[in-house]
Each structure stands twice: as C-alpha cells, then as structure tokens.
Amino acid sequence: MARQRTRDTVHRAVLSLAGEGRVGAITMEGIAARAGVSKQTLYRSWASTGAILFDALLARSLDDDGSVVLPDSGDLAHDLEELATGMVAELSDPTHGPLLRAVTAEMQSDDALAEEFRRLLLGPQMKAVSDRLRRGGVAEADDVAELFVGPVLHRWLLRSRPFDTGWVSAHVARTMRAAGVV
Amino acid sequence: MARQRTRDTVHRAVLSLAGEGRVGAITMEGIAARAGVSKQTLYRSWASTGAILFDALLARSLDDDGSVVLPDSGDLAHDLEELATGMVAELSDPTHGPLLRAVTAEMQSDDALAEEFRRLLLGPQMKAVSDRLRRGGVAEADDVAELFVGPVLHRWLLRSRPFDTGWVSAHVARTMRAAGVV
Amino acid sequence: MARQRTRDTVHRAVLSLAGEGRVGAITMEGIAARAGVSKQTLYRSWASTGAILFDALLARSLDDDGSVVLPDSGDLAHDLEELATGMVAELSDPTHGPLLRAVTAEMQSDDALAEEFRRLLLGPQMKAVSDRLRRGGVAEADDVAELFVGPVLHRWLLRSRPFDTGWVSAHVARTMRAAGVV
Amino acid sequence: MARQRTRDTVHRAVLSLAGEGRVGAITMEGIAARAGVSKQTLYRSWASTGAILFDALLARSLDDDGSVVLPDSGDLAHDLEELATGMVAELSDPTHGPLLRAVTAEMQSDDALAEEFRRLLLGPQMKAVSDRLRRGGVAEADDVAELFVGPVLHRWLLRSRPFDTGWVSAHVARTMRAAGVV
DNA sequence: TTATAAGCGAGACGGTACGTCAGGTCTTCCG
DNA sequence: CGGAAGACCTGACGTACCGTCTCGCTTATAA
C-alpha cells in the first residue's frame, strides 16, 4: 500500500534505531520522527512496531539473496558447518541480531506476527535445511533440521552461553550421528 | 522487603491474570488492581512485570519440589522420555506455559531479568539434565543436554509445530545416537 | 495550541468544580475527568491547576467586558463607591471569589503565575483605578489606588471580617481624605 | 500533646527547610526526615504542614517578645513609621517572609488554620495597632488600622511592587490624613 | 487558468500505563 | 510501652505512546 520510497525510508529509520541500542524501546512515534513521516503513514501499512521490524528484517534478508540459498558442495558435514557458522554470524550481527530478538519477543504474544514469521522467514529456511539434509541421505530430514537449528536458538534466545569456537564442529558431528549418516 | 503475605497475594493475582488470556497485556496497574495492592507495593519489591512473572514462576516451581529432581531409574532412554514428556506438559500448561513465554519474551530486552532466569531457573535445570546424562555415561554431557532441550524450545518459542505424539520417542532416540550411547 | 473548543470545555469544567466547594482540592485529574478531556490536553496548554484557574478567571473577566471599564460619572466619591461595591460583589461571588482565592494562594509559590496575574489582571485594573483618581485631581494616584484597594483585599484574604454594609462609604470617605481632595 | 523537646526539634526542622528554598514544597515526609522524627509523631500534634508552619511562626514571634508590643513614643506619626518599617522588615526576612507567605496561602483553603491565624496572630496585632491609634486620638481606629496595614499586605501578597524607600513615610502621612488627625 | 480534490505532514485528541511522590493509617520491633 | 521505622493503600503527579482524528499545505488533474 505504501509507496516503495516510503517503505525504504521507514526501513532505514528502523535499522538506524535498532543499531543504536535498546530495540525494545522502539516505538511508532520514534520511527515516525526518525523517518520524517507521519504516524498515519505508518499505521496505513503496518499494524505494530513488530510488523515494521519484521518487514525491515525481511527486506534485509531479500536484499542479500532473493530466496534462501544454502551451500551444497556435496559434502554434508562441510555444508552444515558452513550453514551453522553463517547462522551464528547473523545472530551476532549488531543490527540483525537485536532485530530478530525483538521480533521473536513480540511473536510470543502476537499470533498474526508469528504466522507471518513462520510463513515468510522460518518456514522457507527450515525447508531449505531439511532439503539439503534429505539430499544428503538423511531420513527424518525435518526433525533432524530441528535438531540442528534448535540448540543454536536455545543458546541465543535463552542467552545461556556465547557461541564459543569449536562448538560448531562438535555440534555438526553430533547432528550427523543423530541423523545416522556417519 | 515485602511481607510474605503480600508476595503470595501478588503471585496469586499474576497467576490468575496469566490464566485468563493475553499474557503480553499484563501491566503493573492490572496486577495491583487484581491483587488489591498499591502500585508502590509492587515497585518496592519488583522492577517490572517480567520480574513479577518470573518470581511467581519460581515460587510455583519451588512449591512443587524444593529443588530440581529428575527421574533416575537407571534406564537413560526411559528417563529422557519421561523428562521430555514432562517438559512438553509444562510448556502446554495453560498457566505455566504463557507465563514462561512472557518471561522469555521480556528476557530478550532485559539483561537483569535474563541473568536471574539463567541463575535460578535455567541453570539448575540444565545442570540436572547434564548430570543425569553424565551418570548415564555420556561424554559431552552439557552439549548433549542442549541438543536434547534445544529442539523442544525451538518448536515452542518459534511456534513452528505442535508437539505431536510419537515425536518425543524419536527425539530421545536421536539424542541417544548423538550422544553415542546406543 | 489548544483549540478554542477545548479551552471552553476546560473553562466550563473548572468553573463548575470551583462552584461546588473546595477550590483547594482541584486537581489536574479532576479537571480532565470533569471536562471529558485527557490529561495531556491540559498539560499541553497549561502548566498547573493555577494556570487553568487563572485562564478561566481571565476568560470570564473578558467575557463581561473586553477590557477594564470603570464608572466615570464626574463625581469621584460616587464612582469610588460604585467601584468598591463592585469589587466586594465580585469577591463575594460564589464562583469568582473562590477562584480568585485559589489563584492568589498559588501565586505565593509560583512566580510565573504571579507574573501573569500582575501583567494581565492586577496591573490593568490598578491602572484603571489610578487613572480615574488622576482624572479626579488626585496627585499620588498610584499610591492612593493601593490605599483604596489594599484594605478590601486585606479583609478578604486574611479573612478577618465580612464586608459589612456601611463600611464601603466610610472607606471611600477615608480614601478621599487621604488623597487630599476633600 | 507533643513534648516540648519534640516541638522544638520539629520547629527547627521546618525553619531550616523554609530557609533553603521552596516553601511550597515542604511536606510531612520531608519534615519528619529532617527532624529525625516519625510521621506518626507529626500527625499526633499537627493536622497539616500549614499547621506546623504556623506553629513554628508563632513560636518564633513569641521568642522575640511574649506578646505584641508596639512603639509608643507619644508621637503617633513617628510610631506608625517605626511600625511600618518593622512590618516591612519582617515580610522581607528570608525565613519569616516565606513562612508567612505559605501560611497565608494555605489559609485560603483551610478554615481551621485561618481561624487559628486570626485568633493568635492577626487579631492581637491588629488590636495593638488600633489601640495605639485610639490612644493617638483616632476615632475609627479599627478601620484606620486596616487602612494602614492593608496596602502593605496588598503589595506583598499580590507581589505587585517591592517596598521602595520613601514609600513608608508617604503612606504614614496618607494614613494620618485619612484618620483626620492632621 | 483556475477550481478541486487527493495525499501527506503535523499534531491535537481521548486514552492507558508508566514510575514517582506524598498523604494518612497501621504494624512491627527495638530501647 | 512509647516511639522510630517503614509497609501499606490511596490518589495525584507529569510523561510517553497508543491509535484515531482533523487541519492545512502541497501537487496533480479536470473544468
């Protein structure tokens, strides 16, 4: 509904706000002020700050690559390691990380946002992973994908431990064993 | 600072609010009104709704059993299955589940709360799990505990899929394989 | 900043509150509730209850006559008597009186309000009185104006005695003697 | 009811608070804290901050001279000038002035306080003035006392003008003319 | 060329909640 | 056992945002 120009302005505003600290303190008024846009313009296109954050996140993901593309070298272990390293990097990114954190938080009490998140971001990514696993000969590919991604998010969302080096390789090895392909 | 009587009243209020819908909409004023307590009394003892929710959650956990007690029948697979089933039940509980969801959400932007959560709830529970694994002969017990718990939380926090029956057994089997004890 | 419609609503609310008892108990919240207006709307235009009361008082004064108009019959004694009678009537008015009392009280600890009061209400009125005196041939017109008005306010603010009949004429006579025009 | 020791402590606390700025911001809690006394102790003896301020004011007046004593040299004009100068000095005093200002403000909406003020402070003083006038041969002594004191309070309470030098003498002269004794 | 509208910024508005302060009352506990 | 310490309920404070709404000022088309 909003013109692309407006969307871009808003995205830029949101990213700049997200990059300068407390993502939880992002408000409609703040975004409007930063973007030099009226509140009406925001409400015309988005239902909540969560929706804007998610939209910005999505736009950012699509800027990098039109769709989800995973490494496929033929060597499953190698690809999984590359994949996990990429995830860790993304979650540790000073802009992307907090943004994703905020969206995940809002999802907990916003069903519509959760649905969008699953449909447009999480679903395709999980599917890409399980496809790669399936191509590698893994039987219960969906479940193993979850086994692979779950611990990463556990560590990140529950903020239990930083991602120490060395952990990724060990995790890949464990995943391979669980998948029964080693 | 707050008297035990007051704490109990507040916990009861919070649980009743949590049980009746939108946990994200819980406010200091709402809790005060429901508990028949003044806002000052809340602020004297807790810094945020998140802190109150967490305190209630903790009190509830400690009501059931003074400390973390896990099944220990000697049969690791059997115990893990029981453990996972218990977790799923807890996360699906109409009061406990939403409460935990809200706390997890607030943790994303409240470092102090996150620290408390780790120290008093998550830490001891993860330690209990890894202790049980270690007793069962698992080498990388901490990491395997994460591998075991991670996918459960992934499914629940990202709201990707319900906990279908049969999944638990398969998940335990995969965990055992990853741990190298089968 | 506030629209005239809003100002009017607020003035009406304040006058109704002032008319029904304890002027000292007038609060921002009370005014907002009575006027059916949000607190923000009040704070956007006025700094304190005192400022609102004063604004209402001023609007009320200007409703009656655009500016300060005093009797000018040519007979100074007669005009002063009319003037004093008018003042007494105003101070005894069940709405105007308490309002003025409250504003005077707040002035004692609010410099900005005191300044406004002097500039827009007291100043013009005192000037009108001294102008009339000067036209009547009084030399130290400003000081005599003070001599004329002072005892009225003394009696009213210190709440020493009611305005008994007969006092006004005697007071006018004394003022004329002091002014040296009799 | 309160022991003299306590009363003194509280008076000292009130005076020190009054001397350091915003008299309007004096609170029961503040006085209790400053005096090292519990709130209960205050409420046991005084009904409001106004009552405490007034009590302190009264104690201070009585410290100087047990009762109201006015100059009586035989020369009325001279005595009035001395009296007026004393009043101006008192109203300009950095502690006494603000205290009196605060009490006068609270009187506007506290009938009990107003009654006490009239009975114990204003009444005796006005009576002393009119007695002196009567001794000087003034007929309407009560009214002339009001004529004498009124303009001083007008200037001070309505904060219209500072007490410029020279004004006092002129004011005394006008009062004498009004009283018909010149 | 002039109206006539559509689109948008600005921000007033009624609300809800925030976090704080003080008012009074009541309880606890120490000297 | 009297008084300080302070927890407690209450009510108001002044502020931040919410989501809706009206107002005027462009800017672009239709008379």
From TrEMBL, chains A, B, C, D:
InterPro entries found in the cross-reference section: Homeodomain-like_sf (IPR009057), HTH-type_TetR-like_transc_reg (IPR050109), HTH_TetR (IPR001647), Tet_transcr_reg_TetR-rel_C_sf (IPR036271), TetR_C (IPR011075)
Record carries keyword DNA-binding: yes
DNA-binding region range list: 27-46
Keyword terms: DNA-binding, Transcription, Transcription regulation
Any one Gene Ontology molecular-function term assigned to this protein's record: DNA-binding transcription factor activity
Pfam family, one: TetR_N
Domain HTH tetR-type: 4-64
The UniProt record lists the keyword DNA-binding: yes
Organism domain of life: Bacteria
Protein name, as recorded: Transcriptional regulator, tetR family
Species this protein is from: Sanguibacter keddieii (strain ATCC 51767 / DSM 10542 / NCFB 3025 / ST-74)
Phylogenetic classification of the source organism: Bacteria, Bacillati, Actinomycetota, Actinomycetes, Micrococcales
